[in-house]
Amino acid sequence: MKKLTKLLVAVLAVAMILSGCSQKSSNETKNESTGKQDSKESKEISFMIPEWGVPTDEMLKEFEQESGIKVNVMPTSWDDIRNKISTAAAGKNAAADVYEVDWSWVGEFQKAGWLAPVELDQKDMDDMKTTSTFMIDNKLYAVPYSNDYRIAYYNKAMYDKAGLTKEPQTWDDVINDAKVLKEKKIVEYPITNPMSADEKTTTTFLWMAYTRSGKVFNDDNTLNEEATLDALTVLDEINRQGLSDPANRTVSEAFPKLKNGEAAFMVGPSSNVMSVNDKEKSKVVDQVVPIILPGKDKKATATVPFAEAIGISPYSKNKEAAEKFVKWYTSADMQYKLYEKLSNLPTRTSVIEKLLKEEKIKNPGAMLELAKVIESPFPNGVPIYYTKMSTEIFNTINQMANEKLTAQEATKQLVEKVNKIVEENK
After folding, report:
1. Domain containing residue 386: CATH number
2. What is the dihedral of CA 422, 304, 83, 199, to 10 degrees?
3. How does pLDDT run across 161-182, given as a tens digit for each residue?
4. Are residues 217 and 169 in the same domain?
5. What is the pTM of this model?
């Protein structure tokens, strides 16, 4: 009887093993090229992104069909993303497998260990000039998906009315033309530029210094005094001559003034190329021409980017799937579709060229030319202390705008404060 019982147990055990093998084989297939078992079940990854970067359901379905990877989108406000990432990372967890990385965050995120390096072909790197912003120690930590670089804009209709027949080449031209526009009462405040105590004032300083002097910081990350004084002198002259709206000292709404017909010249985000010709957003349709930034004694030879990117959490349990998604999302085909669906300006020069060829961007002016000469002003990558440094920059410039400091005094204060921050973070 005992022998019979043992025999039955053995038979049941074998049956269970065979059943398990059969079930396993139904869920797995052998990849002949690799010899490895591949699961038929879709892998899943999470994607944390502001609303402006959320791909359509159709796009995500197409990606899942192609890759077997399901993407769960987590629409999150830009202001909340950094806190969610840092909170999750404190417990060595991923807030999402893939998430938004603003250009100003990359140094801090990389230093804190919140970003995994991304491998990208050199051909793709060359097609996306803004990748330079997201590189540290020759490694790429995020891939830009939404372009934002500085372009100069002038209202040709206003210039023509004032008898100004040439577009400005230098900042001396900009200032002299602005005086004519003001004297002839074409527009009260011809130049619009941020001067309030916020981030837009910092970025204005960065592109002004870099495009005039070819540098903002020295190789050791300290602030270059000569370039700083040069940039602040221009900003101070515009302000003290009454060529820019005094309201720009207290509010950060300088850029819309061009579209509202309240200014004739500005250097602003590349997205304005589209919006100035949008009848729902602009009062100056077909009047504004995007041009190369003016320089010190001739046109500038470069521009500065402030792009948005996506990166991979080092705590992701699906890094391979996450990287496939990042490369798909920033591919040429997807950037083209994201422009059509979400109006995100591509970071790939080849896609901008295609959109222009198909005339899907009206009155582009120097947009393409500037897209090819994008350069980062940070010689060693965006530093971990960027936020603290930026606060010192915009507060000092705002003091100068309110005529509490001269350009020379503001330069001295900035150099001392920024260099102290640099020293503290060595």
Report:
1. 3.40.190.10
2. 80
3. 999 999 999 999 999 999 999 9
4. yes
5. 0.88
